[in-house]
Amino acid sequence: MSLQDSLTTLLAPAVENAGFFLEQVQITNPGNHQILTCIVDGPKPLSLDEVTVVSRLISELLDETELIEGAFTLEVSSPGVDRPLTQRRHWEKNVTRVIAMVMNDGSELTARLTELRESDATFVENIKGRMKTHTIVLADIKKAQTQVEFSRKDEN
Questions:
Q1: How far apart are CA 11 and CA 22, in angstroms?
Q2: How much is the average pLDDT of 81-109?
Q3: PANTHER family from the xrefs (predicted)?
Q4: Domains of the chain: which residue ranges?
């Protein structure tokens, strides 16, 4: 088992028991130093206080293990907006957001996710002010990513 897999096995249960999800563990070695980056998510966007709680939890677990030798820097962060939507909970968290998608057939669609069901979803595409509704089977989506919106007309 790789170091990354061993750390994931160690950390994931504790992070999940605290109400969060361990999305990814990355280890980089710039020079003589190791940087351990843990990407953590929650059912809603994480606050700074929540990141601090999870960071302390992970730090305590790492202090008790011998998986990492020597000095290292621990970085705990939430996923960026460029994180691909790969799990159902990613989709659930982004209902009402604009999603850019590449389909299995190579076609592309950027539209607002308005409804999520078991195996498909409804998206509304804005084509020069005219709205077009699409129902798409989730298995037909090869890649999906949330788009940044600086101002939404439907929000106050």
A1: 8
A2: 93
A3: RIBOSOME MATURATION FACTOR RIMP
A4: 3-77, 88-146
